[in-house]
Amino acid sequence: MTGFEELAKQTALYPKELSAAVKSTQSSLLIGLPKEVSLQENRIALTPEAVAILVRNGHEVRVETGAGVGAKFSDSDYSEAGAHIVYSPKEVYEANLILKIEPLVDEEFNHLKQGTTLISALNLPAHERSYFEKLNDRNVTGIAYELIEDKAEGLPVIRSMSEMAGSIVLLIAGEYLSSANGRGIILGGITGVPPTKVVIIGAGTVAEFATRAALGLGADIKIFDKDLYKLQRFKYAIGTSVYTSILDSDTLSEAIERADVVIGALRGDDGRSPVVVTDTMVSRMKPHSVIIDVAIDQGGNFETSRMTSHKHPVFRVHDVIHFCVPNIAARVPHTASMALSNIFLPFLLQTGTIGGIEAMLYANRWFMKGVYCHKGTLTNLHIARTFNMRYKDLALILGAGRF
């Protein structure tokens, strides 16, 4: 070896055998967080802490001014996290990925650009065919909160929001039961006084968390569901003996007639909740008793239900108080925003690492179920059948795009 070669080797100029470079598929995302225009929707999908992590990983986040105020996050919080604060909906909708809470309304469609990916709630019963036609006209890829699955085939957004709803419904029930226009009773039980009777329809997450709260207050609880295995799982999760029953018209009717509070939390497998409590059953309830229809975003479990808002949350039918607000978790927007952010941050980071939304969907088949439309075509069979629209299987679309 010559003196030059020895010097080159020592100074790292000498050629070395290296591993072949692996091609990076890192993709920079442009994420838009618009201010919600739906009535009394105060949640936001990403916290400032989550935005800071995204920015550090090379992504750009645009936040419409005031978007986080309802959840107690200021513009300066987002600005300090590295987000760009924009002052009009048009600027925020220039992003190629829009992350919001409520579905689009007419005025927001005017700002939506071609080929956008939209992640939001779907709230199917609130829509008509024209909503999906507008999305398809703009070649939007729509991903619904309610339909997103995780690796364990669970519904992470539904689970998280249901945990909150289950904890909140007992507070709501107690508020209306004890009010001057209610039954004037305490929710729970005290020495020498019969406990409040609570009926919960559906043995899912809402029921689980509502039952924990009700048991702590000393209420008398009965749980109904159409599936025995869900009741078995429910009793195991609660860890104590509670009354459970398969949905039977006579047994359920008797329980509702005696109840002070009835909570409907039975979700449908096809996007629409089953109606299990009839008008006649409601008419036999105690005057000033309370119905809380948590399933109202899917149509509701009560024949007498109709959708309400946080501004006007209740109405009466047969002198029974009905609370039918679809976005119950919006009552605690700071907590709800943190929960949503915890779900979406890992997904967005992985999306950027893999190489974009298309690659993310292809690599995570479990996430595909959240996609209800893709670049001009409905990919959700139930929606397509409901509105008699053209349908394509998303797995086939993405598979064909790989070749």
Short description:
The chain is α/β, with parallel strands linked by helices and 403 residues long. It has helices spanning 3-10, 48-56, 75-80, 89-92, 106-109, 129-137, 156-178, 205-217, 228-238, 249-258, 279-283, 333-354, 357-363, 381-387, 394-400; strands at residues 30-33, 60-64, 84-86, 97-99, 117-120, 141-144, 197-201, 220-225, 243-246, 261-264, 290-293, 314-317, 320-323, 371-374, 377-378.
Would you write up a description of this structure?
By secondary structure, the chain is an alpha/beta fold. Strands 3-2-1-4-5-6-14-15 form an eight-stranded mixed beta sheet, with helices on both faces. Strands 9-8-7-10-11-13-12 form a seven-stranded mixed beta sheet, with helices on both faces. A hairpin with a 2-residue loop joins strand 12 and strand 13. Helix 2 packs parallel to helix 12, helix 7 runs antiparallel to helix 12 and helix 12 crosses helix 13.
